[in-house]
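Problem: given the chain below (408 residues), write out its structure.
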Amino acid sequence: MRWRWVRFAATQSLVLVLFVVTAGSGLAGTAEAESFSSRVLATGFGNPWEITWGPDGFLWVTEQDTGQVSRVRPSDGSTTTLLDISEVFQTDPGAQDGLLGLALDPDWSHGHGYRRVYVAYAYDANPSPETVDDRVKIRSYAYRSDSQRLTDPVDIITGMPAGNDHNSGRLRFGPDGKLYYTIGEHGANQYKNVCKPIRSQDLPTAEQISASDWQTYQGKILRLNRDGSIPPDNPVIGGVRSHIYSYGHRNAQGIAFGPGERLYSVEHGPKTDDELNLIQPGGNYGWPHVVGYRDDQSYTYANWSASEGVPCSALTYSDYAIPSSVPQQHESDWSDPNSSPRSRRSSRYRRDFSFRIRSARRPVPASSAGRRLRRPALTSTRHATVCPDGRTRYSSRRSSTAPSTGSS
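Solution.
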């Protein structure tokens, strides 16, 4: 046995499943395939969202639907509920807000009697019962080992944007001791949110940052100090230093740090072109104008929210059929005026694969691709983790793919 990885099975029973790797691995066609065995570890969770190995040897789990944080013993699956956050808000059953990411303080082993646990969750910032103001906050708690409870809450940052879809919500400490947090574009320009514009390319003004107005943080990866303040070495983007570390993201649900302190993210594509990205400070990863490479394959940006002549509210959304009133843009028609061209490096894999790896540099045109790796029919990549063998692994739902014309 080389390492263990825990994830949850996406079934109605909502169980934790322990997967054990028994062989080496690599990219398809380049190394031996991995062999997995599995066993049910624990059951009864309300949509487990974050599962983190703790330095205490336990699994720390957040439940998106119930607002509970639990601690699971890997040897026998025994579970202790540490916290029930009544403030957690979920728009509808099955919506993508609720209780999301969790991270343990990197100084855990040096704690003085207790340690801090950081969680991210959606809440209703409007006290009026008639109107909902869906926001997300990051809050820390003290872990009391004697009582097996999380206590002494401290809000790190509040008022960040949230929605019923594409919240991302992954929370990690980096090797630099900073908090990294992902926020999606809230499913804008599709389905119920079809008339909401995508804001992944929007950048904040200095006035917005001074006023703690974080609405432009949609479609971003953030980097924060532990107290929620802006690190002085964060990148200056568009003339403004903010919490934003990279932008142009769709739904980066997984981030992980690899060798050399490199930051990776996994990101959902619209029916095609899920991405595994190497994140660079100040990098622009192109959404909604570019998915995967800027190659005009399988994707056209259809801006439903900007429908001309016919109100967006009068349209019936479709992934594949675009009304004439909806502006369309091919990937090759877009460029980032604040970025300079960079080289493209491609690796050759089987032509019937559709999974992409790319990297952006600063300044970064998302139209440029770093490396391309193709994998068969993988969609909705959820999570990435760096394992003791040094390899970065990710989880994904497997399904068929089809060309996409809309922004789904």
